[in-house]
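[step 3/7] inverse_fold.run input=structure_tokens len=181
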């Protein structure tokens, strides 16, 4: 006989709610926020599963590792030589800027697809680790942090600080598509 599964809305009266404070303590506010935004568009119901938080938390940790690796290898001035690899990551960055900008407009408000585009972009940046010291790579990392800021402000601020300790992410303009040579 198959098991029956029933989903109920969270409710204080049903004692089936989730304590947000404990989730924030365990995973961080940005992971909780990203999970909510990623799981469902604003006009859909969200089926809560705490296991999904682990994925968002891991992605934020991977981003932190990526930025820390860049910061530790780029103590000297970045090189300005534009290689084919740089052109490739700048092309991916430009496409990501277009996607995220469109998804975050009030008419669209598709945070889940914006986050997915940022995840894809960060995975591509991992593939081009040999260009850590290039100006193109630094531009990509800076723009990734700025695009992450509306959805994960604490993490984005820290990531941006690792790249530019003298600047405040809130004073940086939204990324624009960069013409590649």
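[step 3/7] decode complete -> sequence:
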């Amino acid at each position: 006989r198959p098991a029956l599964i029933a989903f109920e809305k969270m409710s204080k009266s049903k004692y089936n709610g989730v304590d947000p404070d404990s989730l924030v303590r365990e995973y961080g506010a940005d992971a909780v926020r990203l999970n909510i935004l990623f799981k469902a568009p604003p006009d859909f119901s969200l089926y809560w599963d705490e296991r999904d938080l682990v994925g968002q938390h891991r992605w934020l940790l991977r981003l932190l590792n990526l930025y820390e690796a860049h910061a530790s290898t780029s103590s000297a001035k970045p090189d300005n030589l534009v290689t084919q690899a740089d052109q490739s990551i700048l092309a991916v960055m430009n496409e990501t800027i277009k996607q995220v900008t469109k998804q975050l407009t009030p008419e669209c408000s598709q945070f889940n697809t914006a986050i997915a585009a940022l995840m894809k972009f960060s995975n591509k940046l991992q593939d081009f680790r040999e260009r850590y010291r290039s100006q193109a790579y630094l531009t990509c990392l800076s723009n990734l942090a700025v695009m992450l800021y509306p959805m994960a402000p604490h993490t984005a601020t820290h990531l941006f600080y690792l790249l530019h300790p003298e600047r405040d992410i809130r004073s940086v303009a939204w990324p624009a598509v960069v013409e590649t040579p």
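[step 4/7] annotate
The chain has a mean pLDDT of 85.
The CA atoms of residues 30 and 154 lie 7 Å apart.
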